[in-house]
Amino acid sequence: MAQTDYAPLSEVRKELKVKWLRPKIDAARLRELNKRSDLEGWFQALGHLGIWIITGTFVFYFWTQSLWIPFFLALFLHGTVASFFIGIAPHELGHGSVFKTKILNQIFLYIYSCLGWWNHFDYASSHTYHHRYTLHPEGDRENLLPISPLVGPFFLLQLFTINLMTRPGRTFSKGGLLATLYVTFLGALGKVGPQDIPSQEWLQALHEDQPEEHKKAMWWDRFMLLFHATVILTSLFSGYWVFIVIVSFSPFIGNWGAYVLGMTQHTGLKENDSDFRKCVRSVKVNPLAEFLYWRMNWHTEHHMFAGVPCYNLKKLYLEIADQMPEPRTLWGAWQEMRQTWFKQQEDPNYFYDTPVPPILESKKDGQRAEDIENSIGDLAPRGLTV
Q: 63-86, pLDDT tens digit by residue?
């Protein structure tokens, strides 16, 4: 289907109904896993921010001492931590499921979105469609398959230094630093669309569907530009130019980790299928990577029960493991994606068909269990809650 053939999203909501297949789980246990915790929320949200502040402090110290080798090593680590600000930290906070206290979700959502140059108003609209219609292109163009997992030498260089121009292969993305500055500037003027940037068809469709959210997105882009302009000018006039890279440019340095993990979510999998196990992939990673990734390596479980807080996703997997495919290793996921991509060059209709076990039979205890299963937290903007 060509981009110009997509129906308006208002029509998609009326016509496209996906009856999602989910593993069976005891309703009482699901309610327990769905509970939010301020303590867990502080650990995740403040912990990630704390690591960023610590690595940034090392960058500043080595800069003051003119220790350039330690400076660049610290900057690489700082950027690696900060790269998870772009769309990853704001993702779970956008669902409103990190903290029990709602205002804390909002505060940290604004902090991470501002530091990561992330427009959470646009993303809330996009990601609501992504969860309701995962990999059904009529209603979800946040990821348009096929996505190439191949990494060229120039791309690889940028992933391990500063990401100036690369695009991570997802439709809802501004790409590297230069593209982010350009798209944020256009967004502040209310001009983001295919007539300005051809790849932004999805963003224009969202703006036409949710004009009130578009207005909020426009003001948020203006706020981000003002914030980062203040950081940059203050750093230059004070002589402490290093704060430009510590604060404003750090999300675009050392993007390798966020890229390697983020690409595994849907690449090479099946479109237009009602089984999340076929269109989403979970991977096993080490505890630090899992923490920085806000547990989104348990991505299949997140799509199945999107209201469950990120820190409970592994527990959720253990509850339904007998109905789930074995999570891939990170290496195995990339091998799978690359092999699929090469086969797609010969057969454009090919996809990786994940082998899945049968779904168990169980009894429900009423509408409440169904509400929890279908919940995506507090993600949907007002225009998409009706």
A: 999 999 999 999 999 999 999 999
Strands 328-329, 283-284: pairing is: parallel
Please check whether residue 89 is in contact with residue 48, taking contact to mean a CB–CB distance below 8 angstroms.
Answer: yes
H helix intervals, 263-312: 276-279, 287-292, 299-304
Burial class (CB in 10 A: 0-12, 13-18, 19+), 65: exposed
Q: Is residue 9 part of a domain?
A: no
> What is the per-residue burial (b if ≥16 Cβ within 10 Å, else e) of 259-297?
bbbbbbbbbbbbbebebbbbbbbbbbbeeebbbbbbbbb
376 part of a folded domain: no
pLDDT, tens only, 81-127: 999 999 999 999 999 999 999 999 999 999 999 999 999 999 999 99
The reply to whether the predicted model has a pTM over 0.90 is yes
Domain-located, residue 6: no
Q: Give the per-residue pLDDT at 199.
A: 56
Residue 98: which of 29, 28, 42, 33 has the closest Cα? 42
Give Cβ neighbours of residue 80 (< 8 Å, ≥ 6 apart): 253, 254, 256, 257
The CA distance from 59 to 210, in Å, is 42
Question: How many domains, in total, are found in the chain?
Answer: 1
Q: How far apart are the C-alpha atoms of 76 and 62, rounded to whole Å?
A: 13
**Domain-located, residue 2:** no
Question: What domain range is 169 assigned to?
Answer: 19-367
What is the structure's pLDDT at 5?
79
First CA to last CA across the chain, in angstroms? 28
**Mean pLDDT value across residues 251-266:** 96
**DSSP notation for 166-205:** ---S-SS---SHHHHHHHHHHHHTT--STTT-GGGHHHHH
List Cα–Cα distances, 63 to 56, 73, 81, 354, 386, in angstroms: 11, 11, 19, 49, 53
